[in-house]
Amino acid sequence: TKRGFEAQRALVVLASKCKQGDLQPHLSDIKAVYLDMKGSVDPRSDHVNHAKAVNEAVQSANWLMMPSGAADFVSEAIGSTDFWANKVRVEYKAKSPEHVEFCVALKALLQGLVKYIKAHHVPGLKWNPRGGAAAPQPWPASSTLGSPYAALTAS
Length: 155
Known about the structure:
The chain is an all-alpha fold. Helix content is 59%, strand content 0%. 28% of the residues are buried.
């Protein structure tokens, strides 16, 4: 999930410095996170509901592709995330409070994203109309090292 949020940040920074162009080449890392998450939910795991909650939260990255209603989309993702997080809360409320804290932190993360979007990206991802062209190659899904966005993410 950290990689997914780093990829979102890199794209937001890219948009702040570049004119809007084809978004698809810059979504490879976010797509890779989706695929990793989708394949990592083991239904036999003791933490299956945790994984499903995180999977729902990661899908909030789709706000980057929304021409409008980005904040509403993430708000709806909070509801989907809460569906699974509530199962965690019920199961671990009495026996392991750190699991409940995880659910609270996950929800707070998404609520913070909604506030950020409302403050800076209404109706959707804002690009810099006076910026340069976006790099044609996406950064590798395996690492942020050597990324064409490295100079952008450092700021």
